[in-house]
What does this fold into?
Amino acid sequence: MKISKRSFPLGFILLVMAFGSMSCREHDYRLHETPAVQKALNNRKARSHELQALKAKGLIGENNKGFITILKPSLQPKEKSLVEAENHDRKFIYTTVVKQNHLGGKGLAKVEEKFAKTRSARATKGDFIQTPSGKWVQK
It folds into this structure.
């Protein structure tokens, strides 16, 4: 059986990662869908509700590098594992975008920054987000 590979613009991937939606935006980067990429996207979608519940409680927040940060040490081991799995899948997707688009050494930081901005803009009222300067604020 031949697996077809599809290519998506980065804006599309950011929106899928942020919301699970299928909207497309104009960006220069593309992400070719592979089984591993699809698995990471599906994993992210499956855990999004649990992560949002933790955000609503102020236990975690979106940092300025495109990852989840634990804000309160009171997280249970299962919740910590959830955050670790989320950050692992995000890192995989970011590095895949960099590799597939031949972005070089500074590419990862640019992809992380772009995703952090998307997550910050789309954060729910009350969520904690980290500003580019490093300050944590509640949206």
